[in-house]
Amino acid sequence: MQTLVSTQTSHDRHGLYPEAVTVEDFRRNLASVQERIAAACRRAVRDPAGVRLLPVSKTKPEASLRLAHAAGCRMLGENKPQEAYRKWEAMQDLTDLQWSVIGHLQTNKAKLVARFATEFQALDSLRVADALERRLQAEGRSLDVFVQVNTSGEASKYGLAPGDVPAFIQALPTFSALRVRGLMTLALFSSEAERVRQCFILLRTLRDRLRDSAPAGIGLDELSMGMSGDFEIAIEEGATVVRVGQAIFGARPLPDAYYWPDAGNPKEHSE
Ligand SMILES: *Cc1c(COP(=O)(O)O)cnc(C)c1O
Questions:
Q1: CA separation for the pair 132, 129 (Å, rounded)
Q2: Ligand 1: which atom is nearest the Cα of residue 184?
Q3: What per-residue confidence (pLDDT) applies to 256?
Q4: Would you say residue 2 has pLDDT above 80?
Q5: Residues with CB under 6 A from ligand 1
Q6: What is the pLDDT of residues 21-47, one digit of tens each?
Q7: What is the spatial distance between Cα 183 and Cα 207, in angstroms, rounded to a whole number?
Q8: At residue 180, does pLDDT exceed 60?
Q9: Percent of the chain residues topping a pLDDT of 90
C-alpha cells in the first residue's frame, strides 16, 4: 500500500506540456502516456488492457486532430458539444474516427450530440436524458453514456451529488437509446494527492455499492476518472477510462476556468 499512497499528482506540469506539432510528437506523447498507464497498472496489480486512454482534443485545431488520428487515435474527447460538432462535420472523411462528448450538455444541444457522438460522459439530469432519447430515436441511433458524479463537493462542478445517483440510475431504463456504461467524475484540481484520491475512491465505492442493485441493462462496469495531472492515481483507484488532453496534445493557451465555466475556486486552481 505504501507505493499507492505516495503517488503524486503532476498538476505542476499543467500548462507546460509542449505543443504536439508532428505525427511523431503525437506518437511519442501517446507512448509516454501509455507507459505511465502501464506503470500505474503495475503498482495496482491491474491489467493495462482494462484501462482505455481517451485523448481529449478540446480547443485544439482540426490540423492537430488529424495528426492525432494519423498517430493512431480512433476516438477523441471534446467537452463542448458545438465545438465537437463542428470538428466532426469538418472531418467526415476520417470514417473510422469516433467522438466522445465529455462536458456538460444543455437540452437544446442534445440534437447535435445525438447526431454524431458515440459516447457521452456527462449525463447529470433526467431532462438531458429525455432530450437525448428523443433525438436519438429520431436519428435511429443509440449512445453510450456515463453518469457524471460530483465527487469533490465543489458547487461549481457539474454532476450529480453522490446521494442522488442511486435514484437516478433506477430511472435510466426508460431511455432505451442510452446504453449506460458507468460513472464519470472530475476530481478536485489540487496538488494534494490524498484529497484527489478521495474523489476517485468515492466514485469507485459508489459504483461498487450500486452495481448489484442496478436495473437490468444498466451497466456500471466503467469508471471514467483521471486526466493529465492525476490519471495515475485514478488508475490505482480503479479507473477504466482516463481522459487525457494536455499530455498528448500539449498545453492549452487558456486557464481551465475558461473551459469549465466557474470551475473550482481560485485557490485550488492557482496551485
Ligand atoms: C479537458 C478535460 C480533460 C482533460 O484534461 P487535461 O488536463 O488536458 O488532461 C478531462 N476531462 C474533462 C471533462 C475535460 O474537460
A1: 5
A2: 13
A3: 65
A4: no
A5: 56, 58, 79, 102-103, 186, 227-229, 243-247, 259
A6: 999 999 999 999 999 999 999 999 999
A7: 7
A8: yes
A9: 84
